[in-house]
Design a protein that fits this description.
Blueprint lengths: L3 E2 L19 E4 L6 E2 L2 H7 L15 E3 L5 E2 L1 H4 L19 H4 L2
Parallel strand pairs: 1-3
Antiparallel strand pairs: 2-3, 2-4, 4-5
Pfam family, one: zf-CHY
InterPro entries: UCP017292 (IPR016694), Znf_CHY (IPR008913), Znf_CHY_sf (IPR037274)
Keywords: Metal-binding, Zinc, Zinc-finger
């Protein structure tokens, strides 16, 4: 099981900052390569700011429901391609923080 870092992490990967039923995605920081529930948790707990992943590289997205890793393009489908859990569409406004 991949550990999800953050503050007040729930069983599906929610955190203190984002905790709706749709907030089930953890994102990997390109610098420390740890999955965090959100950039705010990362920036409070790590000794560096969240470093985004290039959109075409790796699998920087983790579904907190099924624990499967996804690429940026798979994540953009709006739901987990493995368990079909929907993702929060509001996360799109933070895309520039997580991906470049």
């Amino acid at each position: 099981m991949t550990k999800i870092y953050g503050i007040d992490i729930g069983p599906r990967g929610t955190c203190q900052h984002y905790h709706s039923e749709l907030d089930v995605v953890a994102l990997e920081c390109a610098q420390c390569q740890r999955y965090y529930a959100c950039y705010e948790c990362h920036n409070r707990l790590a000794d560096h700011d969240f470093a985004p992943w290039p959109k075409g590289d790796g699998k920087p997205v983790l579904c907190g429901v099924c624990q499967k890793k996804l690429s940026f393009s798979e994540y953009q489908q709006g739901q987990c391609i493995y368990c079909q859990t929907p993702f929060n569409p509001g996360c799109a406004k933070h895309c520039h923080i997580y991906f470049n």
